[in-house]
Amino acid sequence: MKKITVGIIFGGASSEHDVSTVSAKSVIEKIDKEKYNLVLIGITKQGEWFVYDGPSDMLPEDKWLGGSIRKGVISPDSLVKGIVTENGETIHLDVVLPVLHGKNGEDGTLQGLLQLAGIPFVGCNSTSSGVCMDKHFTNAVADSCFISQAKWCSFNSYEFSQNKEECLKAAEEKLGYPIFVKPANAGSSVGITKAHNISELEQGMIIAFKEDKKAVLEENIDGLEIECAVMGNENPICAEVGQIKPCNEFYDYEAKYINPDSELIIPANISEEKRKEVKELAVKVYKNLGCEGLSRVDFFVRKSDGKVLFNEINTLPGFTPISMYAKLFEAVGVSYTEVIDRLIGYAISRGDNY
Q: How far is it, in rounded angstroms, from Cα 326 to Cα 320?
């Protein structure tokens, strides 16, 4: 059987660049190399594109940049269907697996390029990716589809600079303290703060605006943090439901990737009936946001009444050795290698029909 050529894109000009390189290393090590030829495409923090021809263990900490690299970019020309290198060589790609997180990776920009190029790719299309990446639009769609979630509001940097006191007062009155302040477009909990008073709220806005021009503010939910992995195109399926016990006050960047004291509990410490409810709601969120390929859907189970509340969705979740997505499928008998294989299969079956 002829091998399928898979372009694996990693790195990226985003605050989650380092997480991406660790995810990509893990994917490269787990993918079935008897079935796939790999073309590794690295994007630096400055946005430069290179084809990398070295070992995967050089990816973390950007050690790959000191290895065998050559300039190469994906052409938007749909007749090329692949990479054009600096010396004019063309490398055909049957499918692309983006192992990118955050801005310029899962916000629809890369997906738009791949759609122009006519190359099948793993994950959601550009529209769905953009909506799911922007927490303001995600929350707005959830409200319109009657999906229960925390109370929220949002402000852009301009309106906040012009009416700071009014914005802060409106947030206080609607949400109460504590308030979570998040950049509208960022992942891995980068730029998120938990404000307990107006001074911390104002500082949280400043931090959020360093990552994005729009901030989303949400009420604090006293509940369990629950995650559900979803996979598929027209008929998506769920894996097991997992639970996060963060080592810090909330599941911030350090708790996710640095401090080993955070716990992943699979299955989540909730009833089987409640896990079923989470899975059904995860599929509802996935479909209403137009997702395809994969996503991880996160929820709270409120302690006071057991209500399941939608938190957020991640269309290109982490694939590091400690990331939840693959572990949730492993819990139902689907290995990491098989997860990758299925995701590539979903991409190829969809083709360039976006």
A: 9
Is the CB of residue 328 less than 8 Å from the CB of residue 21? Answer: no
Is 262 within 8 Å of 244 (Cβ atoms)? yes
Second CATH level (architecture) for the domain 4-121: 3-Layer(aba) Sandwich (3.40)
According to the CATH classification, is domain 131-148+221-350 in 3.40.50.720?
A: no
The pLDDT tens digits of the residues spanning 74-120 come to 999 999 999 999 999 999 999 999 999 888 889 999 999 999 999 99
**For the chain, percent helix, then strand, then coil, each to nearest 5?**
35, 30, 35
The Cα–Cα gap between 42 and 49 comes to 6
Pick the closest to residue 223 from 240, 244, 200 (CA basis).
Answer: 244
Strands 95-99, 4-11: parallel, antiparallel or unpaired by DSSP? parallel
Strand positions, DSSP E, the chain: 4-11, 36-43, 49-52, 69-74, 82-85, 90-92, 95-99, 152-156, 179-183, 193-195, 214-219, 223-232, 237-245, 263-265, 293-302, 308-314
Residue ranges in the chain whose pLDDT is less than 70: 187-189, 247-261, 354
Radius of gyration of the chain from its Cα atoms, rounded to whole angstroms: 20
Q: What is the pTM of this model?
A: 0.91
Domain borders along the chain are: 4-121, 131-148+221-350, 152-219
Residue 20's Cβ-side half-sphere holds a number of Cα atoms within 13 Å equal to 29
